[in-house]
Write a structure and sequence with these properties.
Elements: E1 17-22, H1 33-49, E2 52-59, E3 63-70, H2 76-100, H3 111-129, E4 144-147, H4 151-162, H5 164-167
Antiparallel strand pairs: 1-3, 1-4, 2-3
Amino acid sequence: MTYKNSQKRYYDSSYVYFITVNTKNKQSFFREKIWCDLWIEELKILKELKPFKLFGFCLNYDHFHMLLRCDEKNNISQIIKFFKENFSRDANKIIRQTIVSATAPSRLQMNNIVKILQKRFYKKFIKKNNHPVFLKFSWQKSFYDHVIRNEKDLEEHYNYCVYNFQKHDLPENWRYTSLNYPELIDSF
């Protein structure tokens, strides 16, 4: 089923895709290290549960880019939907539960990281400010994708993807780019 004004997507397991996903209303959610750490943990889980080839990524304050290739079982929409849903659920669970209490149970794969992030979130926002800075996290609907056409296109999008933090004047030592996570990156 196609929705009115929805983007036409081309699915093929041989395609390399350049993806851009924004937070809702371009909220600078990822200014806080705890959410960036959760994003990386969710990416690790995504790679285990929905296998795909990841060639590069960069997380910025209000969006992220990925360069990837799907397998035959999962198309690009399924992978991005899975990632967005799981990150949103876990981020909102941390926000919601830390408002009520500093500890809460979480899903099996995220148990330890969620507890650590809840404590950090509680100390940093709830206790310090007596109220949460972020009331709810959500992504912009849909996402932008570009099918890589040739080697030159691949090189340009790879460089744009992994060095995107420089374009947005993020710190020179910005941690949340694939340059710092070689264990997550597949070779072309």
